[in-house]
Description:
Blueprint: H1 3-12, H2 19-25, E1 30-34, E2 39-41, E3 49-55, E4 58-63, E5 69-75, E6 80-81, H3 84-89, E7 96-99, E8 103-109, H4 110-119, H5 122-147, H6 150-160, H7 164-167, H8 170-176, H9 181-199
Antiparallel strand pairs: 1-8, 2-7, 3-6, 3-8, 4-5, 4-7
Amino acid sequence: MERFDFLLQHISTFVDISQEEFEKVKPFFRYKQIRKNRELVGLGDVARDLAFIINGSLRSFTIDESGRERVYKIAFEGDWIGAPLSFDEGIPSRYVIEANEPTEVFLISFSDRDNIYFTVPVMERFFRKLVDGYLKFAIRRFTSVTTETAEERYRKLLQTQPEILKRVPLHTVASYLSITPESLSRIRHNVANERTLFVA
């Protein structure tokens, strides 16, 4: 599938957009390759772009007082990722966005995101739906970390993002689940044993 075909397919899941309208959308997006462990947004940078992932994965994280990563989001193909407050308000980002693996993205800048509304009005509805989705993600993320056990969070991750354990280092997965790598190892072992007993 061509890169822009993938973007069109994605947009079409949210809004009705014609091929003619999409041809006007394409110039607003810039293609970029990001090497593994390279940053798209650095700590303290102003996030100039939102990123749509064509291939690969990115994570957003903060750094705590002890210098450890606190992973907030892990995004794969067909996901958007950015530092929303920095992007919308032009302030230094408290989040780093970094590639977990070689990654290809389409980027759209703040000014182009606003200008696209006038060129293709349906895109305003599309981006509004993205914002709604992000708010729901943030609420679910907060609720999960504050009300669910570590094992519940791990089981939910297996259901919603099973590829994550194959493509992302386990210490990153542990940080995303807000647990230590040791706890993750123990939970994985228990769940694997449980499945083995069930199959037997």
